[in-house]
Amino acid sequence: MGENRAILTGVHFWDGDYACAEGAIAAGCRFFAGYPITPSTEIAERIAQRFPLVGGTFIQMEDELASMAAVLGAAWAGTKAMTVTSGPGFSLMQENIGLGAMTETPCVVVDVQRGGPSTGLPTLTGQQDMMQARWGSHGDYEIIALSPSSPQECFDLTITCFDLSEKYRVPVLFMMDECVGHMTERVVVPEAERVKPVSRRWYRGPKNAYRPFKPDPDGVPPMVRAGQDYRIHITGLTHDERGYPVINAECQHWCVTRLVNKIRDNAEKIVMLDEYQVEDAEVLVVAYGISARVAFRAIEEARSRGIRAGMLRLITVWPFPERRVRELAAQVKAMVMPEINLGQVYLELERVVAGRCRTRHVPHCGGWVHDPKDIFEAIMECTR
What is the bridge-based pairing of β-strands 107-115 and 81-85? Predict the structure, then answer.
């Protein structure tokens, strides 16, 4: 079995963790550094088995801090790189995720969420890292975060995560949850020629003219492989287009504004949504991950009773789909958001809706999914 087996074409019955691992391989990922942690360990185990067969490098690091550092280094060496973790490990990675944002390092971080805080519920589900995904590191920066609702999406969207990381030169977070990670379903892997991962944007000019942070017109700089005779200076300090530290307000404005705007200015291209029965909806359920799947039963029950309920499923959670949410908030009477946390993405929903319609949160502390009856009751309450 060689490189031609990187894409296991056909129909499989995989859990979300295995599907994610296979999606990473299909996307061209060939470096993994990580540390085992429930409920993401199966991804690492699968990659450890498969990487020797496709020319990849797998390293079990001493902890999550080192794992994230190794991923950043591998990316600058020219390799598509990733790591996986869960709540406590995700916390440990935050400083180096911020370094990845500042150094514009393309990579993918998979967080299979479990109940927290602290050690919490290692084997049971949660969606309690969503706000940490957005603001977990310090300073101003923008990040991209996707959330799958099925093993099929774990395969498909992992490829998308790598594509986005390469296109915008930014760490991309894949916010799975334990239920989706451990759920086994049919996963269809297409023919290899139909999987066309985005390649890195390589610099093509003279070596002495290369500037690692000089952006193209779209705000994203091309890259080179470290060690190929280019002058490269990479630092977490505020820096100019050469990568050299410049400690003043003017350079801070140039540097940080561009980091933020290359995502904000392209938000409409980045955001992915799944809409169900939205056209005539009077109450809209806004959800992501496993919570969206549970909410379908509540929506169907409401429909059976004459309530026009619909679904806006967030595939991209960060950047938040502000434009579409505002449009729909002007159309519906209410928006209901179930989350397996006590109010994280809901805060963003409230901010964007800004009183255009009613909003209702359906919280859950974690450990299991919502009872659809609770979501149904919230929908009914919003129609009274």
Answer: parallel
Instruction: Give the integer Cα–Cα distance in Å for 144 and 215.
Output: 19
CATH class of 3-192: alpha beta
pTM of the model: 0.96
Domain layout of the chain by residue ranges: 3-192, 274-381
Handedness of CA 343, 136, 125, 31 (dihedral sign): positive
CATH number of 274-381: 3.40.50.920
Locus of tokens 């990187």:
6
Q: Are 75 and 28 spatial neighbours (Cβ–Cβ below 8 Å)?
A: no
The answer to whether residues 376 and 296 touch, using CB atoms and an 8 Å cutoff, is no
pLDDT in tens, 6-31: 899 999 999 999 999 999 999 999 99
Distance CA 163, CA 107 (A): 10
Q: pLDDT value at position 3?
A: 45
Local confidence band at 5 (pLDDT 50, 70, 90 cut-offs): confident
Has residue 2 got a pLDDT over 60? no
Q: How far apart are CA 381 and CA 123, in angstroms?
A: 33
CA distance 81 to 278: 38
